[in-house]
Design a protein that fits this description.
There is one protein chain. Helices cover about 45% and strands about 15% of the residues. The chain is built from 18 helices and 14 strands. The protein is of the alpha/beta class. Helix 1 crosses helix 3 and helix 10 packs across helix 11. Strand 10, helix 15 and strand 11 form a beta-alpha-beta unit. The strands form three sheets. A six-stranded parallel beta sheet has the order 3-2-1-4-5-6, sandwiched between helices. A six-stranded parallel beta sheet has the order 11-10-9-12-13-14. Bound molecules: nicotinamide-adenine-dinucleotide.
């Protein structure tokens, strides 16, 4: 099948590469000429494990191409996926749908045969109705169906998630669209990935419900971690003790510095706006958003407390800056609020991340970015583990301690056993663990 993908970011590029790997003929379109130029030379605009090989393989096979020309992408396409960004709208937190509607308008003028337009971007309930209205207004004679097919991939494991999804959700309003979507996802369906067909509005809502639920799980365990610290419990054991219950499940129960990234913060906010407009408040999600916002800066205060009475003039090395491992995405990363809190208190911050340094530079201009964890720790008073990259899981703690002025280790991901940290001469601080002797 011939597929066009509009928007070649994390979702569009991974979806396009995977669809072409299934055997479909795919053109990825983006307005960003730098991005497309790089892709044409085999350079990935994002860090995502395995993506470069997947793209190279399918480009070589002639199944995957890139263009900035929408007309070239859309010509002859049977399915057009919209995978443009839906950031928070400045000022009010609603999803900014201008890119989605802009893409719909541009596509409408180019439709040249029966087409299914699929919204893969995360969009509030009712967006598909508006996309359909735009298409029918601009191209009244076109045979077009509008489908919602939200994406659930995780950055850092995007290809695996796309090829082995827990489920594929499709919101379609007519039989032809259902058939087309079945055909597009047939290779996964044969692998027994559940393909859930529902109404377009339900599919749109399902994506937000999933993200809000996951954000709630993270926030729940983070608050439990705070309580553990106050009453002398160990959140690791609490998480294990509840996570082994099949009704609860072990995932997303790791206490840490709060959720960030390109999805949870903006999607929880947008869902609250939908709920507000529908006069059907989601009070649990409201609390989750508030608690998570406060938590990021609270982690900065935790580091300041570990530094002692006079943090001003001290040096802190932050290890891991991206919002999670295996991505270079800095959007709403907890490290940003931590840096702010430390700098506000007169602390000098150094930083190291295996992949996100280029993205971090403009966001935290005063931070001294270093080439390794050890370089960042040189002469520092504290190291803070912010993101649990594999490369940061097996640091030589003795070497690290030997480089530092004061030996304080704040482990915001509970990666290292406290005894090991203390053996290397550090004062240890974790999240939700009992205080040490
Ligand atoms: N990043 C994730 O992990 C993830 C996961 C699931 C869902 N989503 C959702 O998918 C959508 C895309 O997210 P992303 O992270 O891939 O965004 P992104 O910002 O990485 O990429 C969006 C791309 O769309 C391009 N674009 C915008 N308007 C265009 C137009 N009219 N024509 C051509 N290109 C256009 C931009 O230049 C950009 O390259 C969002 O709604 C997001 O919420 C993201």
């Amino acid at each position: 099948m011939r597929i066009a993908i509009i928007g070649t970011g994390y979702v569009g590029l991974v979806s396009g590469a995977c669809f072409s790997d299934f055997g479909h003929d795919v053109i990825c379109v983006d307005k960003d000429a730098t991005k497309i130029g790089a892709l044409e030379q085999g350079i990935m605009p994002i860090f995502e494990p395995g993506l470069d090989q997947l793209v190279a393989r399918n480009v070589a096979a002639g199944r995957l191409a890139f263009t900035t020309e929408l007309a070239e992408g859309v010509r002859g396409a049977e399915a057009i996926f919209i995978a443009v960004g839906t950031p928070s709208r400045r000022g009010d937190g609603h999803a900014d749908l201008s890119y989605v509607y802009g893409a719909a308008r541009e596509i409408a003028g180019l439709l040249d045969g029966p087409t299914v337009v699929v919204t893969k971007s995360t969009v509030p309930v009712g967006t598909g109705d508006e996309v359909e209205r735009i298409l029918r207004e601009v191209a009244p004679g076109a045979t077009v169906s509008v489908v919602s097919n939200p994406e659930f991939l995780r950055e850092g494991a995007a290809i695996e998630d796309f090829k082995h999804p827990d489920r594929i959700v499709v919101g379609a309003e007519d039989a032809r669209a259902v058939e087309m979507m079945r055909e597009i996802y047939r290779p996964l369906y044969l692998n027994k990935a559940p393909l859930l067909f529902t109404s377009r509005r339900t599919a749109e809502l399902t994506k937000y419900a999933a993200n809000a639920f996951l954000a709630t799980k993270i926030t729940f365990i983070n608050e439990m971690a705070d309580l553990c610290e106050m009453v002398g419990g160990d959140v690791q054991d609490v998480a294990r003790g509840i996570g082994l219950d099949g009704r609860i499940g072990a995932k997303f129960l790791h206490a840490g510095p709060g959720y960030g990234g390109s999805c949870f913060p903006k999607d929880t906010l947008a869902l609250l706006k939908t709920a507000e407009d529908a006069q059907s408040p989601l009070r649990i999600v409201e609390a989750v958003v508030k608690v998570n916002d406060a938590r990021k800066r609270a982690m900065g205060r935790k580091v300041l407390k570990a530094l002692g009475d006079e943090p001003r003039g001290k040096v802190v090395a932050l290890l891991g800056l991206a919002f999670k491992p295996n991505t270079d995405d800095m959007r709403d990363a907890p490290s940003i609020a931590i840096v702010q809190a430390l700098e506000d208190a007169g602390v000098t911050v150094r930083g190291y991340d295996p992949e996100s340094m280029e993205q971090a530079r403009p966001i935290m201009p005063a931070v001294q970015l270093c080439r390794s964890a050890y370089e960042a720790a040189e002469g520092a008073d504290a190291v803070v583990l912010v993101t649990e990259w594999d490369a940061l899981r097996a640091l030589d703690l003795d070497r690290l301690a030997g480089l530092m002025r004061q030996k304080i280790l704040v482990d915001l991901r509970n990666i290292y056993p406290p005894e090991e940290v203390e053996e290397a001469g550090f004062a240890w601080h974790g999240v939700g663990r009992p205080p040490r002797g």
